[in-house]
Amino acid sequence: MRPETLVRDHTVYACVMGSRAFGLATEGSDTDRRGVFVAPTPLFWRFDKPPTHVEGPAEEQFSWELERFCELALRANPNILECLHSPLVEYADDTGRELLALRGAFLSRRVHETFTRYAHGQRRKLEAHVRAHGVPRWKHAMHLLRLLTSARDLLRTGTLTIDVGDHRGPLLAVRRGEVPWSEVEARMTRLEREAEEAARRTPLPPEPDRRRVEDFLVRVRRASVLQADPYEEGVQGVVRGGGVG
User: What are phi and psi of 175, to 5 degrees?
Assistant: First the structure.
């Protein structure tokens, strides 16, 4: 099965991410689409396994296979968790809606480490660019401030909200280069400190609910077997017959 066919025929969840989901879109902003597809279970019984992710087929489109998506979400990958909380959902079937209902199962105190580690990496790149070129990459600085604010608020409340709301104006001012770099750095440092303080008394559980997520994945795989495509009937016959004679 071709990768684009998996996305076209087996997507269970699709959303818009990036600046449009964050509430930071401007006239020239791209539309970044992200999605989750479920590869038919019989494809995993072959030597050549289905892909864990697919780029395209449209521009600015990227999709994950459900199992890979859940693995990354359980690790508190910032990009994956934000994808689950996009306010711009374009499609969700029954499986996709159940995945969305599991959003809380993926959240844990691990987010402090993963969000902080990602933010530190991005900040080092920003500072290196300033040293090399004397001018910050303002768009990247804006998005880093957004991420740090989101992480702090998640640790404080236990809820991940990715739309910046009232922070839109100040963040876009950073993007336009209207805020001194020294002030931007001071904001980053303050947000990092506030996230550290919030992590000490966060309402988030120590670990994600791995068992609940795994139960969901097993049910999806089982349902896929029962709804296999006609070209896979030969494989299904082996399953129903209990083996090869």
Answer: -60, -35
Do residues 132 and 194 both lie within one domain? yes
Is 90 exceeded by the pLDDT of residue 91?
yes
- Do 79 and 58 share a domain, yes or no? yes
Write the CA distances from 104 to 118, 212, 223, integer angstroms: 21, 11, 23
Per the structure, how many domains does the chain have?
2
Binning pLDDT at 50, 70 and 90, where does residue 1 land?
confident
What are the start-end ranges of the H helices in 76-207? 78-84, 94-101, 103-106, 110-133, 138-157, 168-175, 181-199
What span, in angstroms and rounded, lies between the C-alpha atoms of 81 and 104?
Answer: 10
pLDDT in tens, 173-201: 999 999 999 999 999 999 999 999 999 99
Residue 35's beta-bridge partner residues? 14, 63
Q: Tokens 């077997």 correspond to what residue?
A: 225
Q: 77 and 93, same structural domain? A: yes
The C-alpha atoms of residue 24 and residue 142 are separated, in whole angstroms, by: 9
Query: What whole-number distance in Å separates Cα of residue 217 and Cα of residue 166?
Result: 37
With a cut of 50, say whether residue 112 has pLDDT above it. yes
Are residues 45 and 115 both part of a single domain?
no
Q: Please choose, from the candidates 69, 54, 77, 59, the residue with its C-alpha nearest in 3D space to the C-alpha of residue 2.
A: 54
Going by C-alpha positions, the residue among 119, 206, 199, 82 that lies closest to residue 152 is 199
Residues 48 and 86 in one domain: yes
Q: Are residues 7 and 102 in the same domain?
A: yes
Q: Which domain holds residue 18?
A: 3-107+208-241
For the stretch 102-105, contacts whose Cβ atoms lie closer than 8 Å and that sit 24 or more positions apart, written own/partner, are 102/212, 102/213, 102/216, 103/160, 104/209, 105/208, 105/209, 105/212, 105/213
pTM over 0.85: yes
